[in-house]
Amino acid sequence: MQQWNIGMQREVATNWLVSATYIGNLVIHLFGADELNPAVFIPGVANAAGQCPTAIDGRAVSLNVNPGAACSTAANTTARRKLTLLNPVEGPKMSYLDAPDWGGTRTYNGMLLSVQRRMNTRVSFTANYTWSHCIGNISIDFLNTNPGGTYTYKIPGNRAYDRGNCIAENLGADIRHIVNGTALFEMPQFTSHPWLQRLVGNWRLSNILRVRSGDHFNVVSGTDQALTGGDAAMQRADQISPAVYGNQCQSDLRKSNGSCFWIDRSAFAPAGVGKFGNSQIGALQGPGFWTIDAGLSRIFSVTERQHVEFRAEASNLLNRTNFMDPNGSLINGQFGRLQSANDPRIMQFALKYVF
Q1: What range does the domain containing 118 cover?
Q2: How many CA atoms lie within 13 A of 245 on its CB side?
Q3: pLDDT mean values, one per 10 residues, the chain (355 residues)
Q4: Fewer CB in a 10 Å sphere around the end CB: N or C, the chain?
């Protein structure tokens, strides 16, 4: 991995610091996989002798089916695999043959703007905004590979077809806009009012604001349209319209047949038989996300060496519904609809006695 950055900081007022930073990195030799034994798509139908002739690496081969029958179907995937066509005796002993490939790359470029107010008069504050873009090839974890065509290059030998916006399933995510903010407030000391100090003194309130734009995801056909025997769930669909988003409403998500769609269902269609979809990897962007987390704490002194600490925390304090990516499979009845969400409000309390 190669990394580089350049930044500038400046104190613009007492206890106030602003900064601007450019961050970039490049990953080379990104680990992926190529399928060495795909099913070969043979167009058309068999001749009168039941033969489907084709060529592999310049060598003439033939597949035998019924006369006039389609040469390539999902049912004869095994018989159409490359090694089987080249060697009908030994070839059927091999199925998927995923080979590691270290030729992928991934690039990230981002701008980070931040402002910080140091603790003063019992208040501190930080905020930052990141604008970035991640582009790369699909990749897999070397220690957790997925055999059987999953995350291999969809077009054997064509790494470029699977290069685009980084998606979460492939060890990364292209999230263009990210905002984070934190604030810490401390109650003042009421030294001249002991009882008031016991009741309201020493309380600390902390808040975290997290906002981000949606990540990117694929629209897939859900079937082996290319008839290569690869992972059907990962074969991308054809984009047939530039308007890819639906009405994005959220009023009927509990209905089995609602009218709220994040994706315009008419903008996509299965690729033609024997073909690969033209939609780009990570072409669509899911819903954005924002939430506020908060914490309230205080230390109660019992004796000089003993104290009790109380803490209350809330994640997603406002209980906002932050939806996850919609269903992106054309064969799913809920294609294009939001179906899941991130965690609702979660609260926890703690009491600790230190002696």
Answers
A1: 17-22+105-136+163-354
A2: 10
A3: 95 93 95 90 96 94 95 95 95 88 93 92 92 91 54 87 86 89 86 70 90 95 91 89 94 84 96 94 94 92 85 96 95 93 96 90
A4: C
* Structure-block tokens of residue 40: 């070969």
Distance CA 55, CA 60 (A): 4
CA end-to-end span of the chain: 48
Does residue 201 belong to any structural domain of this protein?
yes
Whether residue 72 contacts residue 79, with contact meaning beta carbons closer than 8 Å, is answered with: no
Residue 204 lies in a domain: yes
Q: Is residue 90 part of a domain?
A: no
**Is 154 buried (19+), middle (13-18) or exposed (0-12) by CB count in 10 A?**
buried
- What is the phi-psi region of residue 91: left when phi exceeds 0, alpha when psi lies from -120 to 50, beta otherwise? alpha
CA–CA dist 334, 321 (Å, integer): 19
Our count of domains for the chain comes to 1
